[in-house]
Input
Amino acid sequence: MSRSGAVAAPILLLDLFSLFYRAFYALPPMCTVAGEPTSGLYGLSVLVLKLFREQRPAGAAFALDTSSPTFRHESYDEYKATRGVAPGPLTAQFDRLGQLVAALGFPAFKSVGYEGDDVLATLARELVAAGESPLVVSGDNDCLQLAGGATRVMIVSRGATKAEIYDEAAVVRRFGVTPAQMPDRSALVGDPSDNLPGVPGIGAKTASELVRRFGSISGILERLEEVRPVRAREAIRAAAERLPLYLRLARLRDDVPLEPGPRYAPITPEARERVRRLFTELEFRSLLGRMDAAFG
Output
């Protein structure tokens, strides 16, 4: 499905649950007249319309998490153990979320044993190999390791009202390491959202400096006696046996087994009508007028 042309229209790879949760928590409670909660659905719909209006993609696909444990949970019992139970008004929107995905008509991929981020990494790799230009859209900084070459990453902010697009150079400017080195940095500094502890006493600045100097976790461990300051060296020494595990947890997999079939789909006239009907049911009247600008 590659296309010729000087500037290829991107393929949107949407991190469904990350974006849905972010939209839910960004907005005040919303309900239909009958009392059906809709805030997460509304925020996600606003984002999709905005992406299509501004990016003019050739198509899109969704990546989903599954409810099953992943290889990360099997490797580390405490992985994401601090995450609480989703609130009722959010889970009450799950059925409608499935309806929205079906209405849009984009393929939705998931794989038991893997996270949605791994699915995104796999889709991005496959699309680049096919000559496409993926734009990964997520609220999770873990996806920044995918930036580079034809792949860009859009990180939606906590409030779901702002977003920033990263290529490799933008990642280096902000974090001081390349996208490929982001997992090494995360292994050192940790990630509270995933309950990844990192190395106590190693902050973001020190982690970036160490990865930039030594290249990787393995490079740091091989040249541990060169690490300065001494307190950082001793902290890393104390965590040395755990660091390869933290790195494995932080690094996204791009070899996820996915169902066969097209890796993305365009928005079709039939999909526009399905979305229009769903927006009407959900009482998203303000979004009906935005559809032509987004999907026209």
Summary: The beta strands are 11-15, 59-63, 108-109, 134-138, 152-156, 163-166. The chain has two domains: 11-176+253-295, 179-250. The longest strand covers residues 11-15. The CA atoms of residues 198 and 242 lie 9 Å apart.
